[in-house]
């Protein structure tokens, strides 16, 4: 691979931006492509699929054999709230391959005893986000039920274009949240991206079941990036 392409790939990976290298096998020629770039003729579907799945693939196009090597940032889950659901959610998310961060200023909840071997931040979300900004390969799950803690990271996630934004609470609670977010400058389009009540509707009841519903919703959002939204 050309060193200039290798340097470009490494720069994109450090910046947590998805990138792919298309190698023309007969010639050995390489071409770098970023997510959102126009794909070469005949490769649009293969490139789009690779950026969704993270799977590299051998393809045939215009009589040529090409290898599409894709690099996606490790998916990251920021959980706002060190509650019972978060304990189960963090474990399941790690098994699913997510880098997990727990953020909660309430030191009675955010303890190493309750979240062993996890990246735990006993601070306000605005403090955490100042040092660890969000990005499009981050999912945010706000589960404290406290608008003083949840609202700011939800708005930040919407503004950043996080691939998933979910918030715990009833429909009545969410209606109040929507009003506050609109007043803070969020658009109707942004509001529509919030998964609330959070998680897939599987009839979950216990904290562990709710955690399963949330991670399933997050994985679905990750693997359908760029696809048209499902109707209603």
UniProtKB/TrEMBL annotation:
Highest taxon in the source lineage: Bacteria
XdhC Rossmann domain segment(s): 77-218
InterPro entries in the record: MoCofactor_Util/Proc, XdhC_Rossmann_dom
Protein name: XdhC family protein
